[in-house]
Amino acid sequence: MKFGGSSLANAANIRNAAGIVQRFSPENKIVVVASAMNDVTDRLLQIGDLAQRKENARVRKILGITQRLHVKTAKSISSRKTSRELLDRINHLNTDLEKTVEGISHLRELTPRSRDYLLSFGERLSTPILAAAIRNLGLKAQALTGGEAGIVSDDKFGEAKPLAELSYHEIRRRLDPMLAKNQIPVVTGFIAATVDGTITTLGRGGSDYTASLLGAALNADEIWIWTDVDGLMTADPRIVKDAGVLPTVSFGEALELSYFGAKMMHPRAMQPAAQRKIPVRIKNSSRPTQEGTLVSSREEDNAGRVVKAVSIIRSVGIVTVSGTGMIGSPGAAAKIFMTLGSNNVNVMMISQGSSEATISCVVARKDADNAVRALQLALLGQGFVDKVIAEKDACIIAVVGSGMKGTPGVAARIFTAVARKKINVRIVAQGSSEYNVSFVVSEDQGPEAVRAIHDEFQLGNN
Ligand code: ASP
Ligand code: MG
Asked: What is the pLDDT of residue 81?
C-alpha cells in the first residue's frame, strides 16, 4: 500500500491511513510506502534553491514551516507508547535537515547529489510518523528508508534507476523476515541508495515507483495506490457530467492514459509491476470502501467496450514545416526532430501527409515560438524548407481503449461524432499500439469534442 502526499497531509489523514492499514490486517501481509507529506517535497526544493542563493531569511521561514509541520503532526500522533521515541527521531531529522541547508547556503552550491539528500528528508520525516500511527492501533510497524528496505540504485542523482535484480534480492532478504513476524515495514517512497549507501531519489512522483518495485520484488497479490481520487475516470468530470470510474484497465491502456494526463502513475513506475504482472489498484483514501480502478495485465476485461476513456491535453500548439523541397528528400524529418530535440522542445504528436510537403508537430504551447525560431534558423535557406509556422490555438483529444485494436470502424465513429458537432479536426494520429487515436482541434472546441465521444461510446454507463 502506497500513500501519496495528499493522503498524509495532516495528523487526521495520517491516522486515517493507519486505519486503512489496520482494516486490511492481519489477513493480508502489508508493506506500506509513504510519500512526503503534502507539498513538503516542493518546499524542500524551494529551500534548496534559496539556500544556494543565500536568501537566508526566506530559507529560514520555509524551513521553519516544514520543521514545525512535522513536529506538530508527530505530537498529535503521539501516544504514551510512542511519544518519546518519535519526537526524538523527528527532532533529530530536523536538526540534520537544518545542517544540510546551512551547508548548501555556506557553499552556495547545490549539486544533484546534495539536492537528493535534501529531498530525502520529506519521506524520512513522514514515515516514522505514519509508522507510529500504525503502532498506536496495536500493530507492529517499523519505519525504513528505501535503502534500508533494500532498494539499490545507480548514482544518477535526481532520476536514479534501481538496479532491479540486486534490489529484488535485497528487498526479499530484508522484508521477508519482517513480514514473517507480522511486522509492517513502512518504507520511504521516492528514495533509494547507491551500492555504497549514498541517498538517491527516483524522480518526482517516485513513491509509486517504490511501491511498484517492492510489490514486484515480493510478488505481491496487488499493489494499492491510495490517493485523493476514486480511480481512473472515463473523462474529466469537470467536462463530462456523467463521467465514471473505470473498474478495470490494462497496463497498456493505463500507459496511454497517463501520457494523456490522467492522474495516474508515471509510466516508468508501472514498469516493474507490469513486467511481473502484479495488478495495481488505484484507490481513494477518503473512500476506502470504493473498489477503485484495477490496472492489470488482463486485456480481456473490456466487457465489449472498444473505447474506455477520452482525455484532453490543453495548451498545445501546432508547428508546421512546409516546402516542396521536402518531397522525396530523405533526412528532412531527421533534421526537424534533431533541431527540436537539441532545443529541448518535446514533441507530443507528429503528422506527415503523404504528399510529404508538410510535417506538423504538436508541442506544448509555451514551446511553440521557440520551436519556430529554432527551425527557421536551422532550416530556412537550405533549399528544402520554405516556411515554418505555429498555430497556437489547439488542444489534443486522446481516445483510449485496447479494444480498438483490430476493430474496424472506431475511427469512423470518433470522427463522425466530432463532425456532427461541426468541430474541425486539424491533425490525426493513431499510435501503432492501436490503443489510442488522438487528434487536434481548436482549444475552445476541445470540451465539446470530449463530450461528443463520451456520448458516442456511452462511456458513462459502466
Ligand atoms: N515526494 C515525492 C514527490 O513529491 C515523491 C512522491 O510523492 O511520489 O515527488
Ligand atoms: Mg508527492
From this structure: 64
Cα(235)–Cα(364) distance, rounded to whole angstroms? Answer: 21
Cβ of 204 less than 6 Å from ligand 1: yes
- Closest ligand to 205 CA? 1
The beta strands (E) that lie in 212-255 are given as 223-227, 248-250
pTM (2 d.p.):
0.87
Cβ of residue 205 lying under 6 Å from some atom of ligand 1 = yes
Angle at CA of residue 145, ends 255 and 49, nearest 5°: 75
Average pLDDT over residues 303-316: 88
Residue 331 in contact with residue 284, Cβ under 8 Å? no
Look at the block and give the residue holding cell 500548439: 317
Query: Does 301 have pLDDT greater than 60?
Result: no
pLDDT at 294 over 70: yes
> Which residues, 6 or more positions from 277, have their beta carbon under 8 angstroms from its beta carbon?
296, 297
Near ion ligand 2, which residues have CB within 5 Å? 5, 35
Identify the CA nearest to 281 among candidates 307, 304, 249.
249
Quick check: CB of 189 below 6 Å from ligand 1? yes
Instruction: Calculate how far, in angstroms, residue 88's C-alpha sits from the geometric centre of ligand 2.
Output: 25
What atom of ligand 1 comes closest to residue 190's alpha carbon? Answer: 5
